[in-house]
Amino acid sequence: MQTESFKVMNVKCGGCASNIQTNLTQLPGVATVEVDIATGTVEVQGEGLNHTTLITKLAELGYPVANS
């Protein structure tokens, strides 16, 4: 299983986490999505994950990936 982790902006509540989980799990290959509100971290697990697609979807939802 492949894992992708992102530090994202604007994650402030359970509703944000739910929105991210609901939308990312609809993408091809995504098995699970874990959101840590305290750290703004999103961890996605699955097979054949597309890094760019995940980043694009997060930005579309209003949670852009933070530059490290």
What does this protein structure show overall?
This protein is an alpha+beta fold. The model has no long low-confidence stretch (mean pLDDT about 95). The protein is globular and about 30 Å long. The chain contains two helices and three strands; from the N terminus they run βαββα. The protein has a single domain, classed as Alpha-Beta Plaits, CATH 3.30.70.100. A three-stranded antiparallel β-sheet has the order 1-3-2, covered by helices on one side. Helix 1 crosses helix 2. A hairpin with a 4-residue loop joins strand 2 and strand 3. It is about 30% helix and about 30% strand.
Q: For the largest sheet, list the strands in their spatial order.
A: 1-3-2
The helix tally amounts to 2
Approximate shape: globular
Rg calc: 11 Å
